[in-house]
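Saturday, quiet lab. Running sequence design on the structure tokens for the scaffold JK sent over.
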């Protein structure tokens, strides 16, 4: 009985996708002896001898020799076409027309170091029909012969990639593009630059290995933030923030006290009394003036305490005096040392969820590593004193740098305890840190330390470096980037408008973390939103989830 059952099962084995019909009413009567070796052999014969050694099934295999010969013939035809200058048309049906008479030239994977002033451009990334940095650079590559006409319709064909994306109006002293480029011409960089405006430069080209991708292999990035030193002054007397600090027992430091006393004395000498000045609880530029910062625009008419007796002439006097004193302000060594002390607290790996948008405390991507933060000695530009803050980190999130700078300046202005406040921002409580103006931010350069070691060690090549063009880059920065920043601040008073907005903000307790107690439950966004909802009030937003400076994410 057992032998009959096994034979039935064997007859059910599929062959060519079909089953042999077997009926239980017609059992075989062949006796089973031992292990039925003869029966197995018969079964193999019946099934077309499909089993090989060990009882495994033999799958049909193609003729590898014939395939190899076919590929060899195809390669011979391709090489023959290249010799005749025809080239092989590998384009998709959606591609543009092939330039038949274009001689194919070898392409090399390279890193292209560039710098640009973002004024007048809609950012770095190619975005037709808008004018962008990538659009102008790619067209210059084509015109200079660095990219063939057959690849001119799509940057992806050249493996075109940027190290860091910058948004509208944002500058970069150094950025990197990786692509496959024709570099046989030793004057290719000069030819490319001849097709570019002066505010956009290619510094040089470096050979890399084929696997190089400038964004993924970037080990860190260096950003620079420029700001006038008067941004670190104590809040103006009579403002909401100034009154909160006094009530909390925090008085202006000696430097800030002397500064505002000198402004009051100057106004007094021009016929503007202290009481008249105090009626101006907010600086004039915030009211109705167009600035780049949405925060300043949000100051409502009701928040600007004016008096009907304060005529236009008096108002202009107040403006002129305050502007002159801001330009004449010179930061003290003690205040500069405090700025540097706060910057050092950021170094290392921390949870920066409070310095961006949409990141939860438990989100692993909120952990970022800052390598170094430094503040330069002050320098004068057109009579106004500035400082340069350099931030070197592995990667950054949206708005992170601007919020870090804002927290430093606000801590200094309000005499907060940075050793207590800054570490609190790395903890779970969510607060609203306003973002400093985008005006002062620029990408200094991407850094490829790890990749350069490999490139120099394994391939004997120089690496992706900007050192050979330092002098050119510095001259370019001063002419096309720094001067633009200085001129815009002098004309529009962007930094002054931003800090004045914080000083007069009356919406809620958003900035109460600057008081002595630091971050408390009452100034967290969750608490304030819940309270506003219970009271049926509209939740006031300090900022929108925009993408003004997406290079900060850099993802990054």
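Result came back. Writing it out in full:
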């Amino acid at each position: 009985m057992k032998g009959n059952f096994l034979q039935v099962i064997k007859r059910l084995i599929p062959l060519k996708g079909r089953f042999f019909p077997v009926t239980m009413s017609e059992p075989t009567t062949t006796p089973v002896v031992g292990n039925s070796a003869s029966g197995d052999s018969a079964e193999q014969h019946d099934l077309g001898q499909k089993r090989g050694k060990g009882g495994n099934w033999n799958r049909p295999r193609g003729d590898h020799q014939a395939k190899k010969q076919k590929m060899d013939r195809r390669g011979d035809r391709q090489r023959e076409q290249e010799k005749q200058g025809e080239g092989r048309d590998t384009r998709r049906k959606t591609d543009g027309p092939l330039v038949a008479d274009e001689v194919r030239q070898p392409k090399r994977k390279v890193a292209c170091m560039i710098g640009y002033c973002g004024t007048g451009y809609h950012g770095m990334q190619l975005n037709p029909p808008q004018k962008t940095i990538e659009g102008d650079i790619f067209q210059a590559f084509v015109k200079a012969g660095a990219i063939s006409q057959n690849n001119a319709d799509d940057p992806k064909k050249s493996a075109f990639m940027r190290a860091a994306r910058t948004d509208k109006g944002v500058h970069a002293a150094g950025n990197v593009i990786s692509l496959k480029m024709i570099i046989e011409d030793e004057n290719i960089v000069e030819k490319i630059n001849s097709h570019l405006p002066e505010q956009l430069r290619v510094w040089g080209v470096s050979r890399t290995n084929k696997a190089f991708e400038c964004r993924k292999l970037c080990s860190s990035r260096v950003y620079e933030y420029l700001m006038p030193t008067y941004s670190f002054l104590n809040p103006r007397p009579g403002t909401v923030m100034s009154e909160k600090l006094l009530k909390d027992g925090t008085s202006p430091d000696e430097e800030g006290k002397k500064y505002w006393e000198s402004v009051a004395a100057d106004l007094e000498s021009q016929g503007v009394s202290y009481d008249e000045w105090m009626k101006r609880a907010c600086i004039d530029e915030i009211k109705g003036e167009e600035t780049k910062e949405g925060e300043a625009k949000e100051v409502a008419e009701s928040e600007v305490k004016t008096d009907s007796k304060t005529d236009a002439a008096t108002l202009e006097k107040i403006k002129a005096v305050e502007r002159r004193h801001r330009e004449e302000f010179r930061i003290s060594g003690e205040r500069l040392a405090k700025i540097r002390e706060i910057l050092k607290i950021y170094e290392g790996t921390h949870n920066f969820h409070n310095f961006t948008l949409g990141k939860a405390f438990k989100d692993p991507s909120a952990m970022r590593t800052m390598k170094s933060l430094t503040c330069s000695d002050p320098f004068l530009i057109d009579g106004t004193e500035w400082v340069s803050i350099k931030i070197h980190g592995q990667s950054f999130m949206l708005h992170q740098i601007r919020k870090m700078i804002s927290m430093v300046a606000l801590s200094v202005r309000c005499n907060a305890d940075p050793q207590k406040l800054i570490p609190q921002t790395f903890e779970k409580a969510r607060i609203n840190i306003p973002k400093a103006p985008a005006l002062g931010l620029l990408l200094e350069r991407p850094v490829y330390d790890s990749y350069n070691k490999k490139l120099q060690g394994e391939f004997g090549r120089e690496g992706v470096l900007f050192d050979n063009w330092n002098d050119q880059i510095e001259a370019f920065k001063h002419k096309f980037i720094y001067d633009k920043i200085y001129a815009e601040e002098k004309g529009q008073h962007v930094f002054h408008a931003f800090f004045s907005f914080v000083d007069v903000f009356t919406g809620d307790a958003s900035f109460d973390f600057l008081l002595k107690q630091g971050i408390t439950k009452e100034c967290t966004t969750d608490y304030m939103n819940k309270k506003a909802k219970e009271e049926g009030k509209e939740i006031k937003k300090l900022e929108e989830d925009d993408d003004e400076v997406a290079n900060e994410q850099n993802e990054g």
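Notes for JK: The chain is about 35% helix and 15% strand. The CA atoms of residues 51 and 78 lie 42 Å apart. Ask whether to fix the surface positions before the next round.
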